[in-house]
Amino acid sequence: MLVLSRKLEESLIIDEDIEIIVIGIEEGKVKLGINAPKNKKIYRKEVLEEIKRENKNATKVNNYFLNNL
C-alpha cells in the first residue's frame, strides 16, 4: 500500500489520466474530487462489495424451483 500525505487542494495522479484532489477537510472527514475518463468506473469500496455479493447471489440456482418444473 502506498501512503501519501496531501494538503487541501493538493492532488495525486494515477496512471496519467486519473486525478484525485483534496477538496475539503472538516470534522474528521476528507472530501475528495476525482477527475477521470468517463470509461472508468468509480465506486465506493462498500458499494462495490455489495454489487459483487448481489451478483454472486443472483447466480445461485434454486434447487426447489428446478425440481418442480
Total helices: the number is: 2
CA gyration radius, whole angstroms: 20 Å
Q: Distance between the terminal alpha carbons, to the nearest Å?
A: 51 Å
Helix/strand order, N-terminal first: EEEHH
> Strand arrangement, largest sheet?
1-2-3
Which residues sit in consecutive blocks of at least 5 with pLDDT less than 50?
A: none
Give the biggest beta sheet. Answer: 3 strands, antiparallel
Share of residues in helices: 25-40%
Shape: elongated
The chain-level mean pLDDT equals 91
Question: What percentage of the residues does DSSP assign to strands (E)?
Answer: 25-35%
Number of domains: 1
Structural class comes to alpha+beta
Q: How would you portray this structure in words?
A:
This protein has two helices and three strands, in the order βββαα. The model has no long low-confidence stretch (mean pLDDT 91). Helices cover 28% and strands 29% of the residues. A three-stranded antiparallel beta sheet has the order 1-2-3, with no helix packed on it. With 69 residues, the chain is of the alpha+beta class. It has one domain (11-67). β2 and β3 form a beta hairpin.
